[in-house]
C-alpha cells in the first residue's frame, strides 16, 4: 500500500516536472508558472474552485473504478455524463422549482447515464461487441446529440446562442458558504467511501473483483459473470450520469456545446493514478482538478493552451503504469498473465 | 447526387480509414489491440501539417507524418511489449497524452497555419477522366498497393505465419526459439507507417490544415471495422467500403438538406459503426491471444 502511494506521488511529481519543462521550453518565466499554481490552491476561493472542479472528476473516476474492476472497459464516461446532464436539465425544468426538482434531477441524470452505459453493456453481453469501442462510439453520438439539442429543441428562448435555458435558481444544488462549493462534493466523497466499502467488504464487490481478475475462474465457482459485468456497467454509467447532473445543477446550470469538455477521459486518468482504489481517487481527483485550474491560469497569463493539463494527465498515468509495470517492478504481485483484467474480445464469456 | 461523385468521395473518405484498418489488422493479428491508433493518426496529422507548411513540401509532410505516428508507436510498444502493461490502459493514456501534446503545440504554432497548408495535388494526367481526376497517389496506394502487400505479407510469407502465431499463442513462437516481441514490434512499425500516412492524408489532402482532435474517432472506427471484418483482408476491405460509402452518402445528403440540423448527420457514421459491431457477431475468429501479454 505504501509503495503504491509512493508510486502515485512520484507519477504526479513527474507530470508536474514535464509541464514545467514544457513551460521553460516555450519561454514562460518560472515565476509565472508558480503564480498559476496559486490559481489552483492559493486562496480560500481558489481552493473552493478546485474542489468544485474535482467533484465530477471524482464521480467519473468512481465510475471507471467499478467498471475496470469488473473487467469492463467503460471509456464512455464522457457520453454518460452528457446524457446525465441532459436528463437532469429536462427533469429540473419540468418540475416546479425547489429542492425536490434538484433531487429528482440528480436521480434522472444517474438513470440516464445507466441507460447509456446499459446499451454498451447489453451489446457486450448479448452480441459480444467490445465495450471499449461501443462506449467510445456512444461518446460521439452523445456529443453530436447534445449539439442538436442546444441548437434545436432545447435552445434558449431568443434562439441566438447555442446553449439551453438555465435551470431556475431554487432548483440549484445548495452551495456551502460563499464559494461555489456545492453539496455534490460531499455526495462524491460519501460515494467514494461507499464504493470502498462495497468493493472490499461486500459479497457483491468480491464477485465483481473476481470477475475482473479472472472471468473463467469466477464462472467455475458459480459467479454469474455476465450479470456481474452488466451490473458493474450500469453502476458505472449511473455514477457518470450523476457527475453530469451534479455539474449541471451545481455549477453550469445550463447546457452548452462541449459541456463534457473531455471530463470523461480525465476521469480515467484520475482512476488509473489512484490504482483503481476508491479512496485514493479523492486526492487524485483534487490533484488533477488543481492541474486543470493551473493550466487554465497559464492559458490566461502565458498564452499556453490549457490542453497542457491533458498532457499532464497522460504523463502521470504513463509514469504510474511504467513504475508499476509487471516487467519493471521487483515486487511482482501478479505473476500469472490471466490474473490481470484483459479484454474479452476473443472469448465468448 | 450522381454516382460518380459518390464513388470518388467514397474512395477518398475511405483512404485514411483503409490505411489505418490495414495497420491495425497487422497489429491485432500479432495479438495486440492498439487503441492508440487514434493518437497515432492525430500526431501524424499534426506533424505532417506543421512540416508541410514550414517546408512548403507535401513530401516532407508525409515523411513527418510517418515520424509522428512512429513516435506514438514507440511509446505504445515500450509500454506494452517491453514493460507488459495492459494494452487498453496504455492506449487510453496515450490518447490523452497526444490530445495534450497536439493541443499545446498547435496553440504555439497556430500562425504558421494561417497562410494555408500545401495539399496533395490530384493526378495531372487524368484531367477530364471522371472520378480518377479527383484522386491522388495516396488513394491509389491505399486501395491497391496496401491491401495486396499486407495480404501477401500476412498470409503468404514466413514472417506473416510467425506473426499470426504470436497472435494465437505467443508461447509457441518462444518455444521455437524466436523472439515473439520482435514480431510484435515489426507489426507495430508497419502500423505506424500506415497510420502515419493516413494522418498525413487527413491534414494534407482530405481537409487541408489542422484542428484540435481532427481525427474525430476515425482510429476507433478503424478498430471496429477490423472486428467487423473478422480479422480477414476481404472482410475489412468490405467493411471500409461499406463504411465510407455510407459516410459519403451522408455527406452529400447533408449538402442537399440544409433544413435538417447537421448535428443529426454527424451522428450517422458512429451509429453506422455501432450497427456494424452489432451485426458482426464480434469476437468470432479473433486471434486467441489478442490483448494478452507475451508469456
**Share in β-strands of chain A:** under 5%
Calculate the terminal CA-CA distance of chain A, rounded to whole Å: 32 Å
> How many strands in all of chain B?
0
Shape of chain B: globular
Helix content of chain B: over 70%
Summarize the largest interface: chains and residue counts: A-B, 59 and 62 residues
The main pleated sheet of chain A reads as: none
Q: What ranges of chain B have pLDDT less than 50 throughout 5 or more consecutive residues?
A: none
Percent strand of chain B equals under 5%
Any idea what the shape of chain A is? globular
What count of helical segments of chain B does DSSP give? 11
Spans of chain A of at least 5 consecutive residues whose pLDDT stays below 50 are 330-349
Can you put this structure into words, describing what you see?
The complex is a heterodimer of chains A (349) and B (295). Chain A contains 13 helices and no strands. Chain A has 349 residues and is mainly alpha-helical. In chain A, α2 (30-41) crosses α3 and α11 packs parallel to α13 (308-323). Chain B has helices at residues 3-29, 37-55, 58-82, 87-113, 137-156, 158-168, 170-175, 180-206, 218-228, 233-256, 262-279. By secondary structure, chain B is mainly alpha-helical. The model of chain B has no long low-confidence stretch (mean pLDDT 89). The chains are: A mainly alpha (349), B mainly alpha (295). At the A-B interface, α6, α11 and α13 of A face α3, α4, α9 and α11 of B.
Descriptors for this entry?
heterodimer, A: 349 residues, mainly alpha, 13 helices, 0% strand, B: 295 residues, globular
Give a quick rundown of the structure.
The complex is a heterodimer of chains A (349) and B (295). Helix content of chain A is 70%, strand content 0%.
Amino acid at each position: 500500500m505504501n509503495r503504491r502511494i509512493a508510486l502515485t506521488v512520484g507519477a504526479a511529481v513527474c507530470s508536474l516536472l514535464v509541464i514545467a519543462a514544457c513551460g521553460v521550453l516555450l519561454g514562460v518565466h518560472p515565476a509565472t508558472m508558480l503564480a498559476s499554481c496559486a490559481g489552483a490552491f492559493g486562496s480560500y476561493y481558489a481552493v473552493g474552485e478546485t474542489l468544485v472542479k474535482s467533484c465530477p472528476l471524482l464521480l467519473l473516476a468512481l465510475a471507471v473504478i467499478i467498471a475496470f474492476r469488473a473487467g469492463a472497459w467503460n471509456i464512455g464516461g464522457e457520453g454518460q455524463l452528457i446524457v446525465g446532464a441532459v436528463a437532469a436539465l429536462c427533469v429540473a425544468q419540468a418540475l416546479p422549482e425547489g429542492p425536490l426538482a434538484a433531487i429528482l434531477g440528480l436521480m434522472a441524470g444517474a438513470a440516464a447515464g445507466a441507460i447509456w452505459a446499459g446499451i454498451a453493456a447489453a451489446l457486450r453481453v448479448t452480441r459480444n461487441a467490445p465495450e471499449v469501442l461501443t462506449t467510445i462510439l456512444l461518446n460521439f453520438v452523445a456529443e453530436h446529440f447534445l449539439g442538436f439539442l442546444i441548437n434545436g429543441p432545447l435552445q434558449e428562448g431568443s434562439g441566438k446562442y447555442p446553449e439551453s435555458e438555465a435551470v431556475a435558481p431554487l432548483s440549484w444544488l445548495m452551495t456551502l458558504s460563499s464559494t461555489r462549493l456545492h453539496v455534490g462534493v460531499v455526495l462524491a466523497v460519501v460515494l467514494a467511501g461507499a464504493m470502498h466499502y462495497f468493493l472490499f467488504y461486500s459479497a457483491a464487490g468480491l464477485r465483481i473483483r473476481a470477475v475482473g481478475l479472472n472471468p473463467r475462474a469466477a464462472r467455475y465457482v458459480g459467479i454469474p459473470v455476465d450479470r456481474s459485468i452488466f451490473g458493474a456497467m450500469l453502476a458505472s454509467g449511473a455514477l457518470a450520469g450523476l457527475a453530469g447532473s451534479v455539474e449541471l445543477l451545481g455549477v453550469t446550470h445550463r447546457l452548452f456545446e462541449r459541456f463534457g469538455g473531455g471530463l470523461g477521459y480525465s476521469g480515467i486518468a484520475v482512476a488509473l493514478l489512484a490504482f483503481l482504489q476508491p479512496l485514493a481517487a479523492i486526492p487524485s481527483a483534487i490533484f488533477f482538478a488543481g492541474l486543470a485550474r493551473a493550466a487554465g491560469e497559464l492559458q490566461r497569463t502565458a498564452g499556453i493552451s490549457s490542453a497542457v493539463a491533458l498532457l499532464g494527465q497522460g504523463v502521470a498515468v504513463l509514469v504510474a503504469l511504467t513504475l508499476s509495470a509487471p516487467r519493471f517492478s521487483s515486487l511482482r504481485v501478479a505473476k500469472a498473465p490471466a490474473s490481470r483484467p484483459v479484454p474479452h474480445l476473443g472469448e465468448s464469456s | 447526387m450522381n454516382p460518380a461523385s459518390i464513388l470518388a468521395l467514397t474512395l477518398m473518405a475511405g483512404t485514411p480509414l483503409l490505411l489505418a484498418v490495414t495497420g491495425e489488422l497487422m497489429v491485432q493479428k500479432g495479438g495486440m489491440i492498439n487503441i492508440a491508433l487514434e493518437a497515432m493518426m492525430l500526431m501524424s496529422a499534426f506533424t505532417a501539417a506543421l512540416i508541410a507548411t514550414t517546408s512548403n513540401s507535401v513530401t516532407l509532410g508525409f515523411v513527418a507524418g510517418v515520424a509522428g505516428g512512429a513516435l506514438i508507436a514507440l511509446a505504445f510498444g515500450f509500454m506494452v511489449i517491453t514493460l507488459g502493461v495492459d494494452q487498453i490502459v496504455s492506449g487510453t493514456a496515450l490518447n490523452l497524452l497526444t490530445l495534450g501534446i497536439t493541443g499545446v503545440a498547435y496553440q504555439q504554432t497556430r500562425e504558421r497555419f494561417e497562410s494555408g497548408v500545401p495539399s496533395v495535388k490530384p493526378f495531372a494526367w487524368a484531367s477530364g477522366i471522371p472520378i480518377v481526376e479527383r484522386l491522388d497517389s495516396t488513394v491509389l496506394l491505399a486501395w491497391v498497393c496496401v491491401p495486396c502487400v499486407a495480404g501477401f505479407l500476412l498470409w503468404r510469407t514466413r514472417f506473416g505465419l510467425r506473426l499470426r502465431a504470436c497472435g494465437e499463442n505467443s508461447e509457441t513462437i518462444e518455444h521455437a526459439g524466436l523472439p515473439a516481441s520482435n514480431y510484435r514490434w515489426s507489426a507495430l512499425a508497419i502500423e505506424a507507417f500506415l497510420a502515419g500516412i493516413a494522418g498525413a492524408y487527413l491534414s494534407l489532402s482530405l481537409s487541408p490544415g489542422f484542428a484540435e482532435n481532427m481525427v474525430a474517432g476515425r482510429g476507433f472506427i478503424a478498430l471496429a471495422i477490423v472486428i467487423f471484418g473478422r480479422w480477414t483482408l476481404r472482410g475489412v476491405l468490405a467493411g471500409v467500403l461499406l463504411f465510407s460509402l455510407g459516410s459519403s452518402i451522408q455527406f452529400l445528403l447533408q449538402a442537399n438538406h440544409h433544413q435538417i440540423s447537421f448535428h443529426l448527420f454527424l451522428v450517422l457514421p458512429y451509429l453506422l459503426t455501432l450497427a456494424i459491431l452489432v451485426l458482426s457477431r464480434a469476437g468470432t475468429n479473433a486471434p486467441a491471444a489478442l490483448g494478452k501479454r507475451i508469456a
